[in-house]
Design goal:
Blueprint: H1 2-22, H2 28-32, E1 42-44, E2 52-54, H3 69-87, H4 104-124, H5 127-131, E3 133-135, E4 141-143, H6 144-171
Antiparallel strand pairs: 1-2, 3-4
Helix pairs in contact: 1-4, 1-6, 3-4, 3-6
Length: 176
């Protein structure tokens, strides 16, 4: 399992570094760019001045909505915060309790901050730690390695999508 810890830690850090490099110079225009009509994004809450939210549905419509870079960054951080909160923390907060950043810089900072406790834990995790059952915000429990695996899968998945959206944004031409 020490090999598992080493592999998980390496993948967690390497995929984050790749995403950070791909987000270098990310502008607020890119952060909010909607590549198609009705894309899910970060939006102000009309009833609460200064508060922001992001569109989400546990059972999204088909086809699944395309999302903005901002949505993806906020989603990555929110997953990190909430999975960590319930598996390793006090288990009090849920998604609606999180502040939603609404600029590229603050979203990237929030994502980096959300990764830190996971990175620190992974750096010293043992075989026993990885196998330990942890509570889930979804109910029940799962091994710590599975919690980390879910977050790693999200980071790789959405990181690749963010990279693609940045490429498309740069190549979209003057008509958009």
């Amino acid at each position: 399992m020490e090999e598992a810890q080493s592999l998980l830690s390496h993948l967690w850090e390497a995929t984050a570094e790749r995403l950070l490099l791909r987000c270098r110079g990310l502008s607020d225009d890119e952060f909010f760019w909607e590549p198609v009509p009705d894309a899910w994004s970060i939006r102000p809450v009309p009833t609460h001045a200064g508060k922001w939210t992001y569109e989400y549905d546990y059972d999204p419509p088909l086809p699944h909505p395309l999302t903005t870079i901002g949505w993806r960054l906020v989603h990555l951080a929110a997953d990190n915060w909430i999975y960590w909160e319930h598996a390793f923390g006090e288990g009090r907060r849920n998604f609606p309790d999180l502040d939603v950043p609404h600029t590229a810089d603050t979203a990237l900072e929030n994502w980096c901050d959300s990764r830190r406790p996971i990175s620190d834990w992974l750096a010293s995790a043992t075989e026993r730690d990885l196998g330990a059952q942890r509570p889930s915000h979804l109910g029940g429990s799962m091994p710590a390695a599975q919690v980390i695996g879910i977050l790693l899968d999200e980071q790789i998945h959405h990181g690749a999508e963010i990279a693609l959206l940045r490429d498309l944004y740069l190549r979209r031409g003057p008509q958009q």
